[in-house]
């Protein structure tokens, strides 16, 4: 590979997509990843129409569609009252060729992107390269990576930090990560038991004043697929207790009683944050994805927002690298993506989680009435779907100059 013009830190979905988009625009790019291979954990799994549109020209969306599950209808429910509103994404089929939510675990997406990147002669991914330091001058950036052979220093013109929520790049660039961490954590469990037979849509958010639940049907290695179930975990509950077979079983049975134990294929516990980096640029260092922003997963905006960052940034950075545009284009990236993260991703994800966990009966009823009213008409559905499918946020970003 030629000397890299851009180094991307992190071979998560956002780093890989940014690298692929840069490589396809003839920019030599090097990806440094701390782990020995692509990571496998149960995080993002829902993709919205704009993300599918952005990945389509690279052949990624078609690859995803071979195994992913299309979810044209999804529900907001209440654990006591049942269905409050059902949203029909096909009502916006005039606005997108992908009028559905697409379900596919993040760890099934990254190998698809990685395969495409491996086919690019001007791109390379180096695993077991954990970035520990970043230095920059007026025209270069140098990263230090810890490798099995000792520290390595690598230079490029630009650096993209896509190294997740604990981003070393963000910390080295001394960019504040403003916001807060929710007191409750999220338990994620997956089971082969089928919730559709109880009337649940393939994606359903079930509110409850004591213990809300979110459900997602995901593809597995083969039939019957997996249902991913998310519960809130009180602040003071011991993590080992939360993850014990008994406690997982108790939560699953309390939500949907079943004769016999639930077959559990995976369980994990996650801290949840609402944070946005004070800037997405520090000179020659750019931030994207979780390195730049974190939000609770109710609404599935985290990775989708990161995908939108990756393509927005790669287009502008490629122009700057080729000398077609000046570095102020990168400030436009920040204005567009940081603004919509604050105005949209943070605001709507917080609203979604609050609605799901609302304790006041009066407020719950008010929320239900307003959702029912909105879902009752095609215009109301459309207005809701434009926001929930992130089309509104992408339009808003595009309108910022
Ligand atoms: C329970 C849960 C459910 C979620 N569901 C959804 C969903 O349905 N839809 C959605 O859009 N989002 C969802 N999210 C959010 C989503 O998972 C993240 O937004 C997404 O993983 C961000 O991707 P990323 O590439 O920015 O970061 P990551 O996926 O965290 O990847 C960062 C990469 O950087 C590497 N790295 C870290 N430090 C270094 C270093 N110093 N040097 C080199 N490499 C390094 C890591 O090993 C990793 O490979 C969910 C999150 C959780 C917790």
Fraction of helical residues? 25-40%
- What's the story with the biggest beta sheet? 7 strands, mixed
Q: Give a count of the beta strands, DSSP E runs of length 2 or more.
A: 22
Strand order of the largest sheet: 6-5-15-16-17-14-18
Shape: globular
Any idea what the radius of gyration is?
21 Å
Query: How many angstroms separate the termini?
Result: 35 Å
Given the structure, what is the number of helices?
Answer: 12
Q: What ranges have pLDDT less than 50 throughout 5 or more consecutive residues?
A: none
Strand content: 25-35%
Tags for this model:
401 residues, alpha+beta, 12 helices, 36% helix, binds flavin-adenine dinucleotide
What does this structure look like?
There is one protein chain. With 401 residues, this protein is α+β, with helices and mostly antiparallel strands. The chain is 36% helix and 27% strand. It is built from 12 helices and 22 strands. The protein has helices at residues 13-24, 49-55, 60-65, 106-118, 168-172, 239-242, 245-255, 302-321, 328-357, 361-375, 378-388, 391-399, and strands at residues 6-9, 29-32, 46-47, 69-71, 73-78, 82-88, 101-103, 123-126, 130-136, 141-147, 150-156, 158-161, 177-181, 185-191, 203-207, 213-218, 226-233, 264-270, 273-277, 281-282, 285-287, 293-294. The strands form 5 sheets. Strands 6-5-15-16-17-14-18 form a 7-stranded mixed beta sheet, with helices on both faces. Strands 8-2-1-12-21-20 form a 6-stranded mixed beta sheet. The chain has a 3-stranded antiparallel beta sheet with strand order 3-7-4. The two termini are 35 Å apart. The model has no long low-confidence stretch (mean pLDDT 97). The site of flavin-adenine dinucleotide has 35 residues, from helix 1, strand 9, strand 14 and helix 8.
